[in-house]
Amino acid sequence: MKKTLPIIVVLITLSLLGLIVLQASWLNNLLVLRRGQLNNKINEAGVAVAVDLFKGMGTAPSFKLQRKMSFGRFSNDISMLLKPPTIEEKYKLEDVQKKLQAAFNKEELHHINFEFAIINSSEDFEMRTPNFEKAYWDTISNKRLFVGIGPETAADLDGISSPEHLIIIVPDFTKQVWGSLRWIIVGAAGFMLIIIAAFFVTLRTLLNQKKLSEIKSDFINNMTHEFKTPLATISLAVDAIKNEKVQNDKEKLAYFTGIIKEENKRMNLHVETILQAALQEKQELQLKITDVHANEVIKQTLDNYVLQLAEKKGTVEYHLNAKTDLIMADRLHFSNLFSNLIDNAIKYGNENLHIKITTHSTPRYFIINVQDNGIGMAKESLKRIFEKFYRAHTGNVHNVKGFGLGMSYVKMVIDAHKGNIKVDSTLGKGTTFTVEMPRVQPV
After folding, report:
1. Around 180, how many Cα atoms within 13 Å sit in the side-chain half-sphere?
2. DSSP state, 156?
3. Chain center to CA of 319
4. Largest Cα–Cα distance in the chain?
5. I need a labelling partner for 240 at 20 to 30 A (CA). Which of 169, 184, 310, 342 fits?
6. Is the pTM here over 0.70, yes or no?
7. What is the DSSP string of 73-121?
């Protein structure tokens, strides 16, 4: 795992970078292709409208009569001047705009905005949309199209030989090209994000598996050591009991049988701890909630640690000041969680260990403070102390034993009781646990 994980990360990273480069190239080519498609469609729409406008004007000329007057006498010289009709004379602005919109819709350019104008051969405006002039002079962002309105329209887009011209302006052409591709871009970006997210989930899973593998190895090593020590002690005690001199000495016999009993208790405690871990894994903590006098349970639990405290030359100072110590709890699990807090204080304590226990109550909670002057914890350990199998670094302390399950069990029990726990610690000075358990509320 240590060798293959970096290789997997590098390969997946290179694959992602390759996909990103390929998608960027693909989007650039798609943009060029789409720009060309829109250009052609806009040209076709413009030509179609120009042809339609020319056909709509017909071929009949318009007649204008002029009367010429000579000085001194009247002369009714009437001449007939032939002049073709103009777009302005035949159509309104709204008519041309509807034709253009219909042509754009036919070319599937529904969302393309445009401005337009009609000019004559003298480049005078016959008609124009309100924003045409503003859009016309921006040649960088906007697309311009000139279409001649005349018989040569289809052959000559510039309409050089035409008397009138249709000018179409597409504002922010590049932006509108991007807009026409927005769903493709959103889809491509979405799938890329999904791939990246899948990569990070996979990487996180691999790291968690690596961490879990290390934790399990550490757990097996600790469990082997924890069971091997009492088994070896029991074996030695049994061998000693077989000795005739020991059998004849009642004090020695009682001493060695006492050792066997104590080591058996220790093994049972280890088994119970492992079973608690199994319950945590299944989230199947079954509580038998009753009214419990917490101060009484605390005193009884402390009595079980007299020998361990004596080995470390430790002392316990307790002030059970809570006037109302009746809580709603499972007596066994409450006793176990408090036992784990004391056991933790002893494990990580220095010589001349001093543990201070205080209790007090609020209208809602019974509060326990367990304070020690042990080695304390760093910030990293504080963040992870309630993780299963996690064991805080002990520095130069090498005799700390256990499975790393005690604090996770404490947290699970407190959560099941809908209580709270807080930890304050200073490296090298000690740790304080504050537990809040719901009180029995008066009726």
Report:
1. 21
2. -
3. 46
4. 171
5. 310
6. no
7. EEEEEEEEEEEPPPHHHH--HHHHHHHHHHHHHHTT-TT---EEEEE-T
